[in-house]
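User: Can you predict the 3D structure of Regulator of G-protein signaling 10? Sequence below.
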Amino acid sequence: MFNRAVSRLSRKRPPSEINDGEGHPSSSHQTLKGTSKWATSLENLLEDPEGVKRFREFLKKEFSEENVLFWLACEEFKKTQGTKQMQEKAKEIYMTFLSSKASSQVNVEGQSRLNETILETPHPLMFQKLQDQIFNLMKYDSYSRFLKSDIFLNHKKSEEQEENSPEAQTAAKRASRIYNT
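Assistant: Sure. Here are the predicted C-alpha cells for Regulator of G-protein signaling 10:
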C-alpha cells in the first residue's frame, strides 16, 4: 500500500515542473510575478520566498503561523537523506508541531495524529496526510483572507508603483527599442 501511495504521489508534479513538449514551462502564469502570481494559487505563493515571508507575517497576526511552518518543515523533511537524519528531523517535527506538548501545535484531526513509535521507522511521506490537511486548511481559510489583507494589498500597491515609476518605464522603452529593431 505504501509503495502504491509513493508511486501515485511521484506522478503528481508541482506546477514548476510541468513542461510543454519542448521542455519549456507550460504554465500560463509564466510572466506573472509577485502578488499577481501569488493571487493565482496558494501553490504559487508557497513557491516564492517573498510570498512565504508575507504569508507568514499575515499568519503571525492571525496566530496561526505554525501552519505554514509545519508545511515548510514537511517539505524539507521529504528531501532528507539518510535514516539517522530522517529520524532526527521526524522527531523535531513531531515535538514542535504534533505532540500534545508541542510548542507550536498544529490543529489536525485526532485520528490523523501520529503515534510516537512511528518516528523510529521514518519515511519521506510519513507526514503527508497531516501536511495535506494543513495545506487545505490554509488554502480554504487563511489564503483567501490573506489576499484581502493589508499586508497583501500594500505589497501589491508598492509593486504597481515600482512598475509605473519613470525608471521602470524608461527601461521598458529601451528594451522595446532594442528588441523591436
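The chain is about 60% helix and 0% strand. The CA atoms of residues 57 and 63 lie 10 Å apart.
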